[in-house]
Amino acid sequence: MRGRIPVVVQARGPARRGRGPVGRALFSCAEGLVTCGVLLVLLVAHQLWWTNEQARAEAGRSVRALEREWDASPPVVSPSETNETNETPETPGVPGAGEVPGGASSSTGQGGGGPGGGGRDRDGTSRAATRGAGSAYAVLRIPRLGLTVPVAAGVGKRTVLDRGYVGHYPGTAAPGRTGNFALAGHRNTHGEPFRYINRLQPGDTLTVRTRDGTFTYRVDRVLPQTSARDTGVVQPVPRSLVHPSYGYDRPGAYLTLTTCTPEFTSRYRLVVWAKLVSG
């Protein structure tokens, strides 16, 4: 017939065969590797970014709540707080960014008397302890690092450190008092407040604000690395048991910062010591 275009129909060849056992195994392995890679990336992002965001947000809210509370009510110092002494039992470990050694994971402070959240009420109990496990009672500021972080009673990971707070070692002195006001904080993840304390230098100032006032300390010495079990660094007169040339030999009002080193490990501890200059 004129004007019609012929249609050519070609027969289909045999259907393509499916993958063999080896092909299917290789494909499954590739899928598994891709899935593991994605999960690993998500885990790293969670640890290095999301935990920091969460912890910093909570720590910021805590600081604002504390300072609103203090600004709304003036400090009240009871007569019994003026003549108290500190007794500091041995702390069996020096927790930092990665772990809390056995025995040092208590969540409540037992600090001696004195002004601030670590002081004692009329009945002799620690104010920090009466606020409850993990309760923030002070604010630490380190101008050189641009750091403002709440201080809570105890050095438990879940109740204190993982929330982005700095932990007050149980049994160590209260802020501004004679003895050793010793603190621990994460260096990596969960807010990592102490990530850059290795940058502190002698002469740098730190402040600790409590309900009863602000105490100013000046950085004096830095111990770059010591054992996680070096309990001497948090004693009332701090001196390293591992490196005896680092530390002090007479009583004073000290502030100790401890964290893990090197970064992203928990093998050793980095220690910064400061002395009270006012407050």
* CATH homologous superfamily caption: Sortase
Fraction of residues in helix? 10-25%
Element string (H = helix, E = strand): HHEEEEEEEE
- pLDDT averaged over residues: 78
Tally of distinct domains: 1
CATH architecture group name: Beta Barrel
Rg estimate, integer Å: 28 Å
CATH top level? Mainly Beta
- The outline comes out as elongated
Low-confidence stretches: 79-92, 97-126
Largest sheet: 8 strands, mixed, barrel
**What would the CATH topology be?**
Sortase, Chain: A
- Helices, by number, come to 2
State the end-to-end CA separation: 110 Å
**SS class:** alpha+beta
Structural overview:
- Mean pLDDT is 78; it is low at 79-92 and 97-126.
- The protein has 279 residues and is of the alpha+beta class.
- The radius of gyration is 28 Å and the shape is elongated.
- The N and C termini lie far apart (110 Å).
- Strand 1 (136-142) and strand 2 form a beta hairpin.
- It is 20% helix and 23% strand.
